[in-house]
Amino acid sequence: MLAAINGTEIYFDIEGSGLKEVEGRLYEKPTIIGLHGGLGFDHGYLREGLGRLSETAQIIYVDLRGHGRSGRPDLNTATLEQMADDVAELIKMLGIRKPHVFGHSAGGFVALHLALRHPKLVGGAILSGSSPTVAPIQSATDEPAPSLADRAPPTALKAAARVFGGDISTESVANYFEEVGPYYAAAENGDLTAQLMRLTSTNIEMMRFFMSKLAPGYDVTSRLHSIVLPVLVLVGAYDWVCPPRAGRAIANAVQNGRLVEFDKSGHFLFSEEPAKFVAVVEDFLANSAAPSWY
Predict the structure, then answer these.
(1) What are the C-alpha distances in Å from 3 to residues 7, 82, 87, 247?
(2) Which helix (H) or strand (E) holds 218?
(3) What angle do CA 111, 71, 214 make, to 5 degrees?
């Protein structure tokens, strides 16, 4: 489905009903809005993991502006702040009361901006493999961060250096995921990235714009203390993209944060440890509430 929002079209899809029958009565289920990472990907890779929650919650997947099935506005309008504003308008348009926003990786960047810019629209945030900044984060305990170099061969490191160095093209990105993709997950889940990437599309122009324009300026660290909403932070022990210390920084800084580490996961913990993911999120949904005055 497409919604006309802020000068473009935003694609969204809904999984699961909004009501659930329990002992002969209908109850309203919580809503989770799923925001994909990348940036440059669409929501498709989230469905396998988030879909497991559709009995507990209604899931609304969103392709952020410039991604997937959404419109292609001027790239200069595709800022993290504007993406957050788009999601806020979608929430209002659909009449959703206090949804929980799930943000994976850079989708978590958008989720944090949403919590900062539109706190009264959101009931809580679930951040998976995300970070408050792309700058290096010092660990309070000095534990080493997971490293691609510790696991990957020289060919993978060369492919990573090429993309992170700014050479972003259809060919270089394809080579990157062939060489580096297996190391996004824990060793026992090495084939998972390829499976998930088959469910998503890639916008090279958006990826290039994110890497060159958006990521370098992203840093909400100093503003995290103002977030009063419940925030569940999920980190994978083997995640070198957004290492556990990044999630820990979020959980420690917000006013109502909870951190859960997935010991057998990398960047895609929702698909690497699905049973634990479902249990943790269901507990969060059942036991968290935004302040009554919000």
Answers:
(1) 10, 15, 11, 32
(2) none
(3) 45
Q: Where does residue 185 rank: exposed (0-12), middle (13-18), buried (19+ CB within 10 A)?
A: buried
Please, are residues 67 and 96 in contact by the beta-carbon 8 Å criterion?
no
Place of tokens 């994110």: 210
User: Are the beta carbons of 179 and 236 closer than 8 angstroms?
Assistant: no
Q: Which CATH class is domain 2-141+204-287?
A: alpha beta
- Token pair 């999984």: residue: 15
Distance CA 117, CA 65 (A): 18
φ and ψ at residue 37, rounded to 5 degrees: -100, -155
pLDDT tens digits for 164-200?
999 999 999 999 999 999 999 999 998 999 999 999 9
Angle value at C-alpha 63, between 59 and 65, nearest 5 degrees: 140
Query: Per-residue pLDDT for 60 more than 50?
Result: yes
Q: Check if the beta carbon of residue 17 is closer than 8 Å to that of residue 84.
A: no
Spatial distance between the Cα atoms of 63 and 36, rounded to a whole number of angstroms: 7
Local structure of 73: helix, strand or coil: coil
Distance CA 181, CA 193 (A): 6
Q: Which H helix or E strand runs over 271?
A: helix 269-272
Neighbours of 162 (CB within 10 A): 18
- Residue 245 to residue 132: CA distance in whole angstroms: 10
pTM of structure: 0.96
